[in-house]
Amino acid sequence: MLAVFHKSIAKSPEALQSPHSEAVSSLKDGFLARHFSSVYPGLVTINLGASGLMAYSMDKQNPLLPRLFSVTDDVFCMFQGHIENVAPLKQQYGLNKTANEVIIVMEAYRTLRDRGPYPADQVLGDLHGKFAFILYDSSSKTTFVAADADGSVPFFWGADAEGNIVLSDDVEIVKKGCCKSFAPFPKGCFFTTSGGLRSFEHPLNELKPVPRVDSSGQVCGSTFKVDAESRKETGGMPRVGSAANWSQHY
Fold first, then answer.
1. By three-state DSSP, how is residue 129 classified?
2. DSSP character for 247?
3. How big, in percent rounded to 5, are the helix, strand and coil portions of the chain?
4. How far apart are CA 221 and CA 210, in angstroms?
5. Which pLDDT band holds residue 75 (cuts at 50, 70, 90)?
6. Would you place residue 189 in the very low, low, confident or very high pLDDT band (cuts 50, 70, 90)?
7. Sheet harboring 129-137: ordered strands across?
8. Is the pLDDT of residue 176 over 70?
């Protein structure tokens, strides 16, 4: 799976950008999507206009970590992996028996967006399994990206030459667009358009970048670790104004 979001939609962390990178513009002339299609012939591409693009293929997938895609009411979601507690989650969200993991993630997002009773970190903590997902809500131009607490699914992100964010389960695809400005997506974390990168395992702690150095001694983006000595403000999610976007508070 591949997603490229324009920097106006999802601003990549500055720590991802390497000063020695020779990254290209991933969106210009559909460069990265064309390269992706040459590697994965069964590619399906979703053009998000000025916001970017999403693409997925069922080719070359790990049968133990399958890829899923769904779109409903302007919400697009790509999911890879599996969730172990599907049955109780379907019951919790009032979903029918045919609902799968990607449907559960989309319903969890809509619950949060529409002022659900739980904070995002608790909702993500309720997903037990091996997973990574990329969600885009075109109605509010909001991204929601996450990876499980063990980093079980290969998942990478980076910044291209224009500061657009690139996400994929294929590290070579991310390298193609971002050169040295990339890193594994932090495990146990989620990223939103307005809130940036947060840990759902340790929601009260800040994340700090740790520079990655390649074999030639050059900095290649950064990984992000929980800063055990820092604590966020604990204001919680306001319960006023049902039309307000939940992501504004994360």
1. strand
2. G
3. 20, 30, 45
4. 9
5. very high
6. very high
7. 67-72, 75-83, 129-137, 142-147, 189-192, 196-199
8. yes
SS3 15: helix
Q: When comparing pLDDT for 232 and 151, which is higher?
A: 151
CA distance 195 to 197: 7
Domains of the chain: 2-249 (3.60.20.10)
Nearest CA to 169 out of 68, 99, 74 is that of 68
At 197, list the tokens. 């990168």
Q: Write out pLDDT tens, residues 82-119.
A: 999 999 999 999 999 999 999 999 999 998 888 766 78
Q: Which residues of 197-214 are buried (b: 16+ CB within 10 A; e: fewer)?
A: bbbbbbbebbbebeebee
